[in-house]
Amino acid sequence: MYMSNPMRGAVAGFVASLVLAGVFYFKSSYDLMPEVNIIRLLANFGSLGEGSAWADHFIVGSLIWGLTFGAGASLTPHPPAWVKGIIFGIFAWLLTMVTFMPVAGSGFFGLKVGPMVAVWMLVLHVIFGFVLGLTYGLLTYCFPERPPEVAEG
After folding, report:
1. pTM for this one?
2. According to a count of CB atoms within 10 Å of the terminal CB, is the N or C end of the chain lower?
3. How far apart are CA 94 and CA 145, in angstroms?
4. Residue 103 belongs to a domain
5. pLDDT tens for the chain, residues 1 to 153
6. CA 18: distance to chain centroid?
């Protein structure tokens, strides 16, 4: 069975989003950094309900980040996919800090909320990137891309 790079990226993004949902649940259960609540930020950003904010979390993680990672992961053979995932997570964090956070009213790097927001968001993005890359690598091993058809002549 074969799987394309974008499909592997989308599946890996969904798995990474699931893992982050677990981290969010754990974090809120122990009241760790309550000011870093991605679902609340998404809900406030678009005047969405909590269910829609969760849907957005999975859409962004699977379709935007996952497909983007899948499209670019095969461009270089090295480093391993999990390392590429961490690097990708850091770039996603940087992009989030300078675009989404200011638009959501939290300021650049979330400084309007507090100085630890950027650090916690980095941790969350590194976890996401690690799981994204690890899952992508496992899917690549289990479901390689279809080999190019050999032209008959």
Report:
1. 0.84
2. C
3. 31
4. yes
5. 778 888 999 999 999 999 998 998 887 777 777 666 777 766 666 666 777 878 888 898 999 999 999 988 878 778 999 999 999 999 999 998 998 888 877 788 888 888 888 888 899 999 999 999 999 999 998 987 776 675 555
6. 10
